Amino acid sequence: MLSTLRKLLCFKKEPKTPLGFCDGPSRTTRFLSCFCCGTEDRYRQPYDPENQFHEAVCMGKLRVVLRLLKKKNFHVNDEDEGKRTALHFACFYGHINLVRLLLSKDCNINALDNQNSTPLMKAVQSWETEIVSVLLDHGADPNIKDCNGEAAIHHAVYVDSPDIASSLLEFGGNIEDTTEDGLTPLLLALQERKLSMASYLITHGANLHACDKYLRTTLMYAVKWDCEMIVEILLKKGVDHHLQDTFGWNALYYAVVGKRKT
User: I need a surface site. Which of 50, 88, 166, 189 has the fewest CB within 10 A?
Assistant: First the structure.
């Protein structure tokens, strides 16, 4: 019965707008959108240790970590099968004292796991603002990209954290860095409906005239989510509502066909 219900919910209707860009409601719904079927939150995947040393780090057991390092049972940069180091785990689980300890032991601050994720990215994913600042102060590179072509600034977008984004940009993060799909942080924020981040980026120098691979503009994305405030800001700042994407559609056409109030 569950599989039948899922098929009904995910039944693909003929799109009204190109690729269904502006179809359906302007707000996502967790239970009715087929995009949610069988899909977990991108940062709720298990992040479990595989050895005694990393387990102690995950649990924040500072004395145990010190003892294991002192006995030379483990090295500060030891990797597990996923190429994760102690610093990855300390950042992910938010143990700032352990982060400071590991940094004092000359750990590899830009270590890459098997997903090309850095400890900085793990701190961003866990909303660990203070740890992000500590890592940046110690020279962490904010512009390394993971296996999905995303840098720390893109992860800051996913968690909708302007504070973290501010720290990343202060230490050289690229506000126009693009994903593999050609999305700048602003376009990504608008695509993911992370409106706090979108507003922050708009007011801190992001290119308002950026387009995705289909030439869809920031204004079109704001229309998609029916966000009147951002639509108004973009129009006042000169984003052209006449611009057409590769399908020949402009923002007004999307608004009309998609029945958006904006």
Answer: 50
